[in-house]
Amino acid sequence: MPKTALLSLKGEKIKDIKLNDDVWGITPNDQVIYEHINLTMANARQGSHKVKTRSEVSGGGRKPWRQKGTGNARQGSTRAPHWVGGGVVFGPSSDRNYTKKMNKKERRLALKSALTYKAKANEIVAIEKFDAETNKTKDMLKLLDGLKLSGKLLIVTTELTENAILATRNIDSIKLILANEINTYDVLYCDKLVITEDALKYVEEVLK
After folding, report:
1. pLDDT tens profile 129-146
2. What is the DSSP letter of 152?
3. Are 87 and 110 contained in the same domain?
């Protein structure tokens, strides 16, 4: 059973806590992880791209010249795709839906696989709680320095205080989420997973 140290906000070790093997110690499934990441990125697409076809481009109501006698190739409209300013053939349309679906069991397996990789790489930092005494960004940076944390951080907690939100929102390398919002993409994208004791228990209770 994997273990991790529980730290205070000052970086002092409080105790060792055991991690549930059913969540943090499974055999990772790379294929399910790939499919879930693909789903996450596809569902994030707006799908608002659009070009006009020849039926939507304005103009072209008459033949540019008569059918015969000019020496030019015959043309029916200036809105044809091969004309400058004409319509686009097979271009992107806003009618396309990029949304993908995935079974609940596969989603859970992907998340547990991602958490297992983090546990094996010792990239989990468990803290007693996460709060900020002030809403100042510089104070939050000092707190992170005390915990010896750097790089891209995913901070998972069960309660979001106003000070914590305001102190972290201007730091690009930090993402602060609730325990019920944890997902495969964010877990794999971060360098360190910083999770409070309550959030860790919540995640284990939901996923085991």
Report:
1. 898 889 999 999 999 988
2. S
3. no
